[in-house]
Amino acid sequence: MRRLLTAALVAGSLTACGTGSAAGDAVPVVIGYQSKTINTVTAGTLLRERGFFEQRLRELGRRTGKRYEVTWQDYDTGAPITAQMIAGKVDIGSMGDFPLLINGSRTQGQGDEGTRMVSVTGYNARGALNMVVVRPDSTARTLADLKGQRVSASVGSAGHGTLVRALGGVEVTVENQQPSVGASALQGGGVAALSQFVAWPGQLVFDKQAKLLYDGAALDFPTLHGVVVRKPFATARPDVLAEFLRAQLDATRYLHANPLAAAESVAAATGLRPEVVYLYNGPNGIATFDLSLKSVLRRALKDDVPFLKSIGNIEELDVDRFVDDGPLRATGFETTEELTNPARITGTDSACGVEVSDSAAAGEVWFEGETATRPAATPDCLLKQVKQAGKKVRAAYVPDAATGTRWFAEHAHWVRVNGGLLPFTTEAAAAARGAVLTYEQALAGA
């Protein structure tokens, strides 16, 4: 269901909608976002909840003498945002990589009346933002086990792209469904698997309604989300776009400085579990938040175009023209090509008595009744910490030993290697390294 949330930035009656004339000298700004697509929170849910954009527009108004009215429109996917942008009813939108490309393709015929991608929200350099899950009682261990069965995916989404790439020729029947519909179909037995983007896989697994079959990071192909703007709006209101990008940076800095509070804020606004939001958006999270339009991400977008053409979702797209870093550079933002997640786990591991130094091995434990998570230097140290604390665990997070994907320790598959315990997101990946242990067995043997 779509929610409309309007923030009037100054006193007075403002009734304008869209980008046409407004009441008095009010300037309307319409933002399309996806509240539950939590890798866009710095340009969506978190940005709206913290009010950073409205604060910056108030400052802009003091300089320009204008009033600004922001309307937030919430959608389940990027497709309706694109439709609204084509109709001139949404000015700025945030969505995943495939929807971004479809947006650019469908508006490119409008020339300078089309759209441009102007920043990145969250990305994963290996592709872990998309995953395939099955029911907890499923006997499938690899994607090959789905041969001939029905799999739910939103056709044209990044989750669909991951599925097709990962299947490698294994034939399945793809049911084109919205994420919520697909989740219900999975639980009801209407489909054998669900291939979707965040936060659906993590939410279903955390609620014990599914188990992970395929981690998109196994593809080692970047996935990302970003911000797109109508070019006429960017041309007419460059100052407003600049303040939006600065506000996005405000939200990104807040998320990095206050990861747990940010996760709880997003959870409260969306109905998602805070533990699930923190899985993706916390330190060492599956998502890396950085506005930079990195060259590796640009190349990934270009490589996505042939797939979207093959399934008839786009005709053609000049990615170099569509991706425009001019507005971001104009704000003074310094872009970077570095792929390291700036939000890292730090601190002292209480169980092993050492400082967390290896980001690739670090984890966290969130105990019931505690307002902060506890860092763990290694997966072994995390297991020891859980045993020693004797407290109920809200969530414990460990990195996959092969891909680095942050995952729930309880739902990881563990293997003893050279005396240590290593976690993996999928059973198949764990089995390739040795005898697979459950979390309970790993905990007992820590």
Automatic annotation (TrEMBL):
<protein>
    <submittedName>
        <fullName>ABC-type transporter, substrate-binding lipoprotein</fullName>
    </submittedName>
</protein>
<feature type="domain" description="SsuA/THI5-like">
    <location>
        <begin position="109"/>
        <end position="261"/>
    </location>
</feature>
<dbReference type="Pfam" id="PF09084">
    <property type="entry name" value="NMT1"/>
</dbReference>
<keyword id="KW-0449">Lipoprotein</keyword>
<dbReference type="InterPro" id="IPR015168">
    <property type="entry name" value="SsuA/THI5"/>
</dbReference>
<keyword id="KW-0732">Signal</keyword>
<feature type="signal peptide">
    <location>
        <begin position="1"/>
        <end position="22"/>
    </location>
</feature>
